[in-house]
Amino acid sequence: MAHITEVGRKKGTAFEVHWRDADVKKMRTFRLRKEAEKFAARVELEKAEGRSTEPLISRGQTVAQVIEASLAASAQRLKPGTLAGYRTLYAAQIAPRFGAKRIAGVGSQEIEKWIADLVKAGLAPNTVHNYYVALNKLFRYALRHRLIAHNPCEAVELPKVTVREDFAPVFLTAAQVETIAAELDKTKPLGTLIRFAAYTGLRAAEIAGLRVRDVNLAAGHIEVRQTVKRLGREWVVGTPKSARSTRQVPLLNRALVTELRTVLLSNPNSGDPDALFWPGRANGSRRLDWTRPIDVGGVRQYYLVPAAQRLKIVGHMRMHDLRHTYASLMLAAGFKPYEVSRWMGHANVSTTDGIYGHLYPSDYTDQIARFEAFVADG
């Protein structure tokens, strides 16, 4: 049974709550008797329901301590890039504001004030939303481990998230893809790379992770098995985004197959199945380096966007827009949504519907004929 002891301190009277948990003596100190009595009641409730009282003590942990515990617990589940992203978000805006506070002492009003300050500082709603997601993840971890009684993020209202104009999807036509690729054919093999991205729909990290063994020209398909992503100065090898992202993607453009064969013949390491398929660049130069992963972000910044602007095709685009282009071209060519979903490695076809549903063909000729025949038959 928990009992309260009044003790004298230099700064005044304090109240200690003493109890046993699994024959181990426990104690917490409070400034007010009322707080001590409430805590003692919680101790008795936990013991009566057969639960450990350790989380009651842990509620004194700071937000900074819980951040480290949460990241450590997530290290085995999250991909390195995702984990690094959370660490960056925590370090930038969350730890400076809440790090020294007790996790159990942060309330929803304080979080709303923090969000208002982020908006006032000029951060975009999407960016504010990302910080909120990271903070909410932290409090969900704390709630799961009974470090807090409830998640204060659940009562918080966020600014409306809008699609930024520079992040709106860009859908190129096949002619525009060829025009940009032809412009970049001057810097081999970048023209082929642009065609490859637009005609296979691979993600940037999947392109960088392709090995010689993954480009099966005889069978006419690409095998997506690994990713390579840059984190700071390091290249990190990982796995595709989801189980369905490990997939085969058909090569439906015979001219592209011919170009890929040329790239393969140019690769001095083509005899090694585990060698990278696409070449990177040597440090500080434009010289091809077949031992380094291709920096797809650099290709976009220094080649793709400038070429698209010179040709007056589009003012801004991301490498991911070539993946959007692939989806639009496949759907326009008459391939079924479930086929496109499988080739793109979406977790399910509803993801494809949500992103590209507006691109589905809307020719209702057959349906109109069937309905009119039905009505005519009375």
Number of discrete domains: 3
Largest sheet: 3 strands, antiparallel
Order of helices and strands: EEEHHHHHHHHHEEEEEHEEHHHHH
| Widest β-sheet, arrangement of strands | 1-2-3
| Count of alpha and pi helical runs | 15
CATH class of the largest domain: Mainly Alpha
Tally of extended strands?
10
- Poorly predicted spans: none
| Fraction of residues in H or I helices | 40-55%
Find the CATH topology of the largest domain: hpI Integrase, Chain A
Q: What form results from the Cα inertia axes?
A: elongated
Radius of gyration: 29 Å
- Quick check: average pLDDT? 89
CATH architecture of the largest domain: Orthogonal Bundle
Specify the structural class.
alpha+beta
- Beta content comes to 5-15%
N-to-C CA distance: 82 Å
Task: Identify the CATH homologous superfamily of the largest domain.
Answer: Intergrase catalytic core
Describe this structure in words.
It is a single chain. The chain has three domains: 2-49; 63-145, Tyrosine recombinase, N-terminal domain (DNA polymerase, domain 1, Orthogonal Bundle); 174-359, Orthogonal Bundle (hpI Integrase, Chain A), CATH 1.10.443.10. The chain has helices spanning 33-48, 54-58, 63-74, 80-98, 108-120, 125-144, 174-184, 190-200, 204-208, 254-266, 296-310, 320-332, 337-344, 349-356, 365-376; strands spanning 3-9, 12-21, 24-30, 215-216, 221-224, 227-231, 234-238, 247-250, 280-281, 288-289. The strands form four sheets. The protein has a three-stranded antiparallel sheet, with helices on one face. A three-stranded antiparallel sheet has the order 4-5-8. Strands 6-7 form a two-stranded antiparallel ribbon. It contains 15 helices and ten strands. The protein is an alpha+beta fold and 378 residues long.
